[in-house]
């Protein structure tokens, strides 16, 4: 069976400084923080930086995060469980509706919500819709604002955007960050560590994500496909880990299936003489092996399932609720 998402070497490096600063009188804290925003707002990039490892795929294409992915970060005596939600957008298909429902579900279950807005795009129609939904939902949870990609605008524009957004919604705190470069991220993490509720940690200190390793491995392969292929096809495919075999020599064999919706898509994924799928497989294998810290044997198959977007099993594998797409 595949393990829980852990990185032993990373765990020692990330846990020791915090344990050293803790004593018997230090109250522990733990809570859920949902990252919401439009597609491509930088939620996955911020999650990976907070956790200190790659647990959510990052591409330049929108709507690549599908499930609510939980990444676990430590700061002092606090354990912050980040929920990287799918981007909020106007849904058109069942998959879209299930993704949006997952995003709002993650926000509803969180102790703190962080709305991420791209500095250079400002208050778009999508941001206005999110603010309206936040106001309608109310609730007792805190909502913070994180204006991301601050390096793309001048200071006067940034200050004007900050004032505009805070006039529209009573944010508990505002942060100006660059998730990609790390600017302002430490301040945001420190604030969150102090705001999550007092209580015991929710996960072991060496666990960095609340998702099966087989799902993360499938997401790594999907990321490589998304980056390699043209704009439309990635939303018509999904990747599932069919088998996970632990071998006696310490290596692991992983068999994955790439499901596509049309016969023509299969040829695109395979590429001329299988060159595309071979390249994708090599990149995915290298990343999975680096993450696990051991040798990986990755085998990919491409299958056509014309109705996979309407199959409950596919949604379950993606961590989504099929009923939410109805």
SSE order and pairing:
Layout: E1 4-6, H1 8-21, E2 29-37, H2 43-51, E3 69-75, E4 78-84, H3 94-109, E5 112-118, H4 125-137, E6 142-148, H5 155-168, E7 174-176, H6 185-195, E8 207-212, H7 213-228, E9 237-246, E10 252-260, H8 263-270, H9 275-292, E11 296-304, H10 312-317
Characterization of this structure:
With 326 residues, this protein is an alpha/beta fold. Helices cover 38% and strands 24% of the residues. It has helices at 8-21, 43-51, 94-109, 125-137, 155-168, 185-195, 213-228, 263-270, 275-292, 312-317, and strands spanning 4-6, 29-37, 69-75, 78-84, 112-118, 142-148, 174-176, 207-212, 237-246, 252-260, 296-304. The strands form 3 sheets. A 6-stranded mixed beta sheet has the order 3-4-2-5-6-7, with helices on both faces. It has a 3-stranded mixed beta sheet with strand order 9-10-11. The protein has a two-stranded antiparallel ribbon with strand order 1-8. It starts with a strand and ends in a 9-residue tail after the last helix.
Helix content: 25-40%
User: What's the name of the CATH homologous superfamily of the largest domain?
Assistant: P-loop containing nucleotide triphosphate hydrolases
Report strand %: 15-25%
Q: Cα distance, first to last residue?
A: 33 Å
The largest pleated sheet is described as: 6 strands, mixed
Q: What is the general shape?
A: globular
Class of secondary structure makeup: alpha/beta
**What is the CATH architecture annotation of the largest domain?**
3-Layer(aba) Sandwich
Total count of domains = 2
Strand order within the widest beta sheet: 3-4-2-5-6-7
Q: Low-confidence segments, ≥5 residues, pLDDT <50? A: 7-21
User: What fold name goes in the CATH topology slot of the largest domain?
Assistant: Rossmann fold
What is the string of SSEs from the N terminus onward? EHEHEEHEHEHEHEHEEHHEH
Q: Radius of gyration in whole Å, from Cα?
A: 20 Å
CATH class descriptor name of the largest domain? Alpha Beta
The count of helical stretches stands at 10
Average pLDDT over all residues = 81
Total beta-strand segments: 11
């Amino acid at each position: 069976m595949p393990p829980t998402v852990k990185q032993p070497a990373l765990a020692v490096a990330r846990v020791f400084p915090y344990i050293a600063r803790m004593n018997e009188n230090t109250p522990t804290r733990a809570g859920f923080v949902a990252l919401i925003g439009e597609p491509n707002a930088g939620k996955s990039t911020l999650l990976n930086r907070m956790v200190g490892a790659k647990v959510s795929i990052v591409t330049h294409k929108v709507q690549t995060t599908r499930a609510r992915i939980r990444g676990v970060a430590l700061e002092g005596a606090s354990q912050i469980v980040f929920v990287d939600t799918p981007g909020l957008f106007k849904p058109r298909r069942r998959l879209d509706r299930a993704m949006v429902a997952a995003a709002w579900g993650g926000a509803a279950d969180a102790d703190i919500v962080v709305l991420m807005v791209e500095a250079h795009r400002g208050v778009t129609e999508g941001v206005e819709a999110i603010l309206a939904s936040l106001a309608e939902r109310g609730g007792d949870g805190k909502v913070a604002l994180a204006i991301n990609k601050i390096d793309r605008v001048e200071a006067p524009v940034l200050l004007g955007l900050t004032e505009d957004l805070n006039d529209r919604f009573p944010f508990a705190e505002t942060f100006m960050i660059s998730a990609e470069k790390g600017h302002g991220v430490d301040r945001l993490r420190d604030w969150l560590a102090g705001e999550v509720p007092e209580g015991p940690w929710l996960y072991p200190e060496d666990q960095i994500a609340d998702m099966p390793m087989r799902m993360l491995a499938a997401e790594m392969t999907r990321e490589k496909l998304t980056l390699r292929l043209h704009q439309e096809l990635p939303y018509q495919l999904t990747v599932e880990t069919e088998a996970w075999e632990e071998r006696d020599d310490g290596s692991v064999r992983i068999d994955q299936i790439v499901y596509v919706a049309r016969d023509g898509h299969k040829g695109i994924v395979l590429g001329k003489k299988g060159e595309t799928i071979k390249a994708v497989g090599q990149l995915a294998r290298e990343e999975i092996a680096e993450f696990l810290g051991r040798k990986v044997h990755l085998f990919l198959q491409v299958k056509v399932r014309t109705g996979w977007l309407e199959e409950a099993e596919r949604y379950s594998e993606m961590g989504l609720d099929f009923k939410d797409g109805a």
